[in-house]
Write a structure and sequence with these properties.
Blueprint lengths: L8 H11 L4 E4 L8 H14 L4 E4 L5 H10 L3 E4 L1 H5 L2 H10 L4 E10 L2 E6 L4 E6 H11 L3 E6 L11 H10 L4 E4 L5 H9 L5 E3 L2 H4 L5 H10 L7
Helix pairs in contact: 1-2, 2-3
């Protein structure tokens, strides 16, 4: 992995909150057992510093993990590998905390035989297709789907708009698009062509390539409904 430090997550969260971001997503990419206390402490600090909703994910495998994150101040949790291994986990989260708390992250790749889901940070393919799994996720009570196209992630050449539109047309819940943001036009296209409800990006914001406030103003001028 080519990882770059983008700075302190709490400071970044505060900066994005002040810049007008609508929501934040924090993913613990190592999600080791040893790292859980550190991550929980960070969530507590974020909750004190930001005044917009935020989602946390990574290593959430049991109801106790969800409980801990919500108690620390998170608004929602994101589950991925754990849900694919045991789909009933989605029902349990939605049943206990409400659908609005459960964001199901789906990492998928367009392979030679179509869109397939992956687990373990995109390293292991499972025999579930993107659309079938997304439909099951919605049926089980997830409130949102965070779809990352592994073909587009990090390339900065635009989102997977065809796949996103397919999901938007087939599902009754909001779709968050992730993977591919590189320009302002990519955000416009993900809402118009991809029919996404939200667009998520990391590096273009972290490294100042696209200021959040500037992007939102530009999107409004392009006819996209955004909160300013």
């Amino acid at each position: 992995m080519n990882l770059r430090s983008a700075g302190d997550p709490v400071e970044l969260g505060r900066a994005y909150s002040e810049a007008g971001a609508d929501e934040l997503v924090y993913l613990d990419i190592t999600a080791s057992h040893e790292g859980r206390k550190t991550f929980t402490d960070m969530v507590t600090r974020v909750a004190r510093e930001v005044n917009i909703p935020f989602t946390v994910g990574g290593g959430i495998n049991a109801i106790e993990d969800v409980d801990r994150m919500l108690a620390a101040g998170a608004d929602k949790v994101s589950v991925n590998s754990a849900a694919l291994r045991r789909p009933e986990f989605i029902d349990e989260i939605a049943g206990r905390f409400g659908s609005q708390v459960c964001v199901c992250a789906i990492d998928a790749r367009m392979d030679a035989d179509g869109w397939h889901c992956y687990v373990n940070g995109g390293r292991v393919r499972v025999e579930r297709t993107l659309l079938d799994w997304a439909k099951e996720v919605a049926d089980r009570g997830a409130g949102e789907i965070l779809f990352t196209s592994m073909n587009h992630d990090g390339v900065k050449k635009g989102f997977a708009n065809e796949a996103l539109a397919m999901l938007a047309d087939a599902l009754p819940i909001p779709i968050i698009a992730s993977g591919g943001a590189g320009t302002k036009e990519h955000f416009r296209d993900v809402f118009t062509i991809g029919k996404a409800d939200a667009g998520l990006a990391a590096s273009v914001f972290h490294f100042g390539e696209i200021p959040v406030s500037e992007l939102k103003q530009w999107l409004r001028e392009e006819g996209i409904k955004v909160r300013i």
